[in-house]
Amino acid sequence: MAFEIQEFYKELDSHYRSLDNDKTRAFLQKMADETRGLYGSGIMRTSCPFCVESPECNYEYVTVCNEYACFLRNISELDESLVYFNEALLELEQHYQTKNANYATIRMNMAGTYRLMGKYDEAIELFKKSEKFFLDFGEAEKYSYVMAGIYNNLSLVYQDMQDYDQAAAYDIEALRYLPGHKDIQRATTLNNLACIYIKQGQIDNAEEAINQSIDILKDIDGGMNFHYPASLNTLGTVLYKKGLPEAALEAFLTALNKTEAIYGKNIDYVNCCNNISRVYADMGDQKSADSYTRMAGEISG
């Protein structure tokens, strides 16, 4: 089969825009199955390079596995996400392709799955290894978006670990690589920074940061960008902290609907249900609060 990278991404983008996770998964699984054996022998896991002629590195399979793993991470199938990240890395390792941006970027993406699994030491190790590659090879400025992504994700790890000073420092470093950008990467970094400010009790700073984030995301992909629900959820939290429950509820409900439309009922959907329940309870509507608590429980098991 002839694999055209541009056609692959064109079709993948089409599936993402359709917001049908089942069809997106079926497409990625099909492409993984088709590209796995493109060069006949597949991954040679035990071959000796000095005595056996290795097949050509299957970059097509690496590309598909990386995209598939990221998709699986986004729908909270974390163990399966690691399987495909490992497949991509192993293919590169078997062909001594570990000293390049491709390998470093995949390790960065894999670290994101470890973070969601609560395996923070593993996540930090992989993020730092990716950072080291780009800094050591003088590639940091060329890959400014990747560097920003590394620091943005390190900030998330330290937020999860409740080390907010370190988390803020990494977000500020991420923004240093995105001066003047009005795009998704800057928007997600501003959202992360707003979350840190909330935890530090700096609500006015949080509001300023999250409004900047939403101002970017609301016009991308017709308001259905993958990162928009997270920023709306943060906005809801800011408004709740400011004592504006009705406005907070509106933001949370919009975040919930967009999360379901884009990702389905994943862990972010559960968290949003719990936020909505909390607001309804504070407003004295216990019936609605209990309803959303049940919804969260049914999904999370």
Offer a quick outline of the entry:
The protein has 301 residues and is mostly helical.
In which range does the helix fraction lie?
over 70%
Q: Strand count, sense and closure of the main sheet?
A: none
Radius of gyration: 21 Å
Helix/strand order: HHHHHHHHHHHHHH
How far apart are the termini? 42 Å
The shape, in one word, is globular
Q: Compute the number of helices.
A: 14
Total E-strand runs: 0
Task: Give an overview in words.
Helices cover 73% and strands 0% of the residues. With 301 residues, it is mainly α. The N and C termini lie far apart (42 Å). Helix 5 runs parallel beside helix 7 and helix 11 (228-241) runs parallel beside helix 13.
For this entry, give a set of tags:
single chain, mainly alpha, 301 residues
Secondary structure blueprint with pairings:
Elements: H1 5-18, H2 21-36, H3 59-74, H4 78-94, H5 101-116, H6 120-136, H7 144-160, H8 164-176, H9 184-199, H10 203-217, H11 228-241, H12 245-263, H13 267-282, H14 286-300
Helix pairs in contact: 1-2, 2-3, 3-4, 3-5, 4-5, 5-6, 5-7, 6-7, 7-8, 7-9, 8-9, 9-10, 9-11, 10-11, 11-12, 11-13, 12-13, 13-14
